[in-house]
Amino acid sequence: DVTHDEFGHIKLDDVELGMVVREELRRRLQRRGVKMTLTHKKIGYELRCAPPIPFDLEYTRNLGYQAVQFLLQGKTKALVAFYDGQAHELAFDAIKDQETGR
What we know:
Blueprint: H1 17-31, H2 45-48, H3 54-72, E1 78-83, E2 86-91, H4 92-95
Antiparallel strand pairs: 1-2
């Protein structure tokens, strides 16, 4: 159940987006036979203890855009990161601990 503001719009703060995303990921992974524990966390003030700045908007927009492009190209098993002013794909195999596999 969600609430609406005085204009009839859904109050996005009331939407448990983390849980929605978690359940959708769980459903998609289950269809592929992948068993994985997923948790959700509502990230907010406790993450930075400061209000967002313009850099935050630009960084998250760019990161999200690159991540979607990565997925739309059918790529998997990597993460997208920004460094040196560029987006880079980091293969999980290249960044995991070789001894633990994590």
